[in-house]
From TrEMBL:
It is found in: Cell membrane; Membrane. It comes from the Eukaryota. The keyword Membrane applies. This is Major facilitator superfamily (MFS) profile domain-containing protein. It comes from Scyliorhinus torazame (Cloudy catshark).
Length: 444
């Protein structure tokens, strides 16, 4: 029973269903409110929505930078529980504001406060770094890529479920208002996830950090710092393209020629979440014959092709064709995280993943500002240029992973930190022994 209670998948599933419900609720509340204030002018409403999400996402991404790294260090010393409980509490309290906004017809700018509350409690960066740290601590290095991809598929399937039902729940009226049932269900799921994380989930113990000899530590640090920089660069470039492209897609589908309503928005998000399942199946079947770097490259190419096709979507059917081309696009991020975890001490997982997610949060801000402003500026003459730029950025992210793979193939020493130093020391001892033998022979 304790083994079952040690899995984080229940937290991931419940939280991601809640996230999917909240995303649809927020988008439709903002769209209905801003569409009403612009007298039904579609282009003007698109610009207002893009501006709202630009500010909201900037706050949502920047605010966690103040707390995520501190929570990560605290977690390395006291346990990973803090990286789940504190952010989930922030999720619940911050997104409670959407309920008040809908009930009392408050201005949508109130939701900026939701992003602040969520961010100051660590937000998604702290939450997801905690999930990854716990999973990495409970998995063997050989199976870590698969284990982290299982997390992604659990997250994706939960999002799929939430997205499919979210549009239908939004249309249910309570007190002659849309969205109340959807928001209440979302908050209930956040509360359940918080209670499970706080009182039921069993957390791994934090082991003291093992120290290598100084010489071995310096040698391994020089080697692994370069490789970790390459992995970080690939991860952040890919995240920049994916975040920018997905932000534009979520707005693009609301305007003609697609003109989606809440139900179609839910279906579109569901198609997006199916990519988690197809990516997991790809890892499950192809990891036997392909290495981690090859899997990452395959995922990047898949996403690049999908964004390029999405830029020319004019019909619903073509949208889903573009999504089908992105079937492996969720492979790169968990696989890169697995590669990173194999090159650091277990006692550093919380801090390193917290730094990674903080860098991702900053990258998301850059993506939001650049792509949303470009989309608003190019709406009249070429609205697809933002998606083509996203595809190009994703394509550029192949360069660091190719260099990383080349470095791994080029090296002929062991993957264990300090082994190259030990081998060199062994050679020195062998030479000393040979010198002693020679001296002994000469004396005889």
């Amino acid at each position: 029973m304790d083994i079952l209670l040690s899995y984080v998948e229940p937290v991931v599933i419940v939280t991601n269903v809640a996230n999917a419900l909240f995303d649809t609720a927020l988008l439709m509340v903002v769209y209905d409110r801003l569409n009403g204030t612009t007298s039904g002018n579609s282009d003007q409403a698109q610009k207002e929505i893009a501006r709202f999400y630009m500010i909201y996402n900037m706050i949502y991404s920047l605010a966690p930078l103040l707390t995520t790294v501190l929570l990560g260090r605290w977690a390395d010393r006291r346990g990973q529980k803090v990286l789940l409980v504190v952010p989930l509490l922030g999720y619940f309290l911050g997104r409670l504001l959407l309920l008040f906004t809908d009930i009392f017809q408050l201005p949508v700018s109130v939701m900026y406060g939701s992003a602040v509350i969520n961010g100051l409690t660590g937000g998604f960066p702290a939450y997801w770094s905690g999930i990854n740290a716990i999973t990495a601590l409970r998995s063997e290095a050989a199976r870590r890529s698969l284990r982290l991809n299982i997390l992604e598929v659990a997250s994706g399937m939960a999002g799929l479920l939430g997205s499919v039902v979210s549009g239908h729940f939004f249309l249910v009226k309570i007190n002659n208002q849309h969205g109340l049932l959807l928001i209440c269900l979302c908050l209930t799921l956040y509360l359940l996830s918080l209670l499970y994380s706080a009182f039921i989930l069993r957390y791994p113990t934090v082991c003291p950090q093992r120290r290598l000899p100084t010489e071995a530590s310096n040698l391994s640090l020089r080697r692994y710092s370069t490789e970790m920089i390459l992995l970080f660069t690939c991860y952040l470039l890919y995240d920049l393209g994916v975040t920018g492209g997905e932000n534009i897609i979520s707005i693009f589908v609301l305007k003609p020629p697609l003109s989606w309503d809440a139900v179609w928005v839910g279906y579109g998000k569901a198609a997006c979440y199916i990519m988690f399942l197809t990516s997991f199946l790809g890892v499950l079947n192809l990891s036997r014959c392909l290495g981690d770097s090859s899997l990452v490259l395959m995922g990047i190419i898949s996403n690049t092709a999908g964004f390029t096709t999405m830029a020319f979507v004019r019909q619903n059917s073509l949208y889903f064709i573009a999504r089908s081309m992105m079937l492996f696009s969720c492979i790169p991020m968990p696989t890169i995280r697995a590669q990173l975890s194999k090159q650091m001490e277990e006692a550093s997982y919380g801090s390193i993943f917290a730094w990674l997610q903080s860098a991702v949060a900053l990258t998301d801000v850059i993506a939001t500002v650049v792509f949303n402003n470009l989309y608003a500026a190019s709406l009249q003459w070429s609205s697809n240029i933002s998606l083509l730029l996203a595809a190009a950025v994703c394509c550029f992210s192949t360069i660091p992973i190719v260099v990383y793979s080349w470095r791994l193939n080029k090296t002929d020493y062991s993957q264990i930190p300090g082994t190259d130093c030990a081998q060199r020391l062994g050679r020195e001892e062998l030479n000393d022994f040979s010198d002693e033998c020679s001296t002994s022979s000469m004396s005889d």
